[in-house]
Amino acid sequence: ADGAASQSGRVYIVLGGPFPSGFTLNLAVPSNIYRRIDGAGNLDEMGTVVLTGDITGDGIDELILPNEYASEGLFTSEGAVYILRGRASWPSVINLATTPADITLLGAREDDVLGGSAAVGDFNRDGIADLAVSAPGADAGILNDQRGDGFVYGLLGSSDWQTGTHTVDRATATPASLLIGEFEENLGALLTPVYFISDGFR
Question: Which residues of the chain have pLDDT under 70?
Fold first, then answer.
């Protein structure tokens, strides 16, 4: 779908309510029962993955939008993850081309495709959800634009995220945790949080 640009993608939030049986919502018709987030760049195709989780610890889930094709140049696909804080009232439209997300994660290099997959879980057992985000195209060594080793980055949830606007650039920022795949493995093509042992960590 066209958001701020051609095929930039859209995400719709349908507000909960007592819907009658057989109810149909036509997203082509403006309505006060949904809100819309527009992707930022040409061919970003935002919305292929949508997650929620309370990574700020305020009791309200955030809207987490991994966007693997987000590009800082012309179709460079560094990837990005846009995080919008949960709130009681949402504007009718949020245009990410003009309004930055509350938290933005940026891919480090061309063709990293940060946001290829993502998962939410309390990975450090502090009671606040954390985020794991993959960059399947990332390379540990020389850039290979055909097939990457794959990285999985950890972002710890924190009350520090409750205010302000934050940008975390994976080219310069030190991640809370980092898994690096073997040669051309594309580590992180799919992430799923599960309990393997009953120690409270996921």
Answer: 144-146, 195-202
Residues in the chain: 202
Q: Coil, helix or strand for 165? A: coil
Tracing tokens 């970003």 back to the chain, one arrives at 44
The two tokens of residue 143 are 């850039």
Burial of 124 (0-12, 13-18, 19+ CB in 10 A): middle
What is the tens place of the pLDDT at every residue in 92-112?
999 999 999 999 999 999 999
Whole-model pTM: value is 0.92
Cα angle for residues 108, 70, 122 (degrees, 5° grid): 70
Residue 180, both tokens: 């690096």
Phi, psi at 161, each rounded to 5°: -80, 0
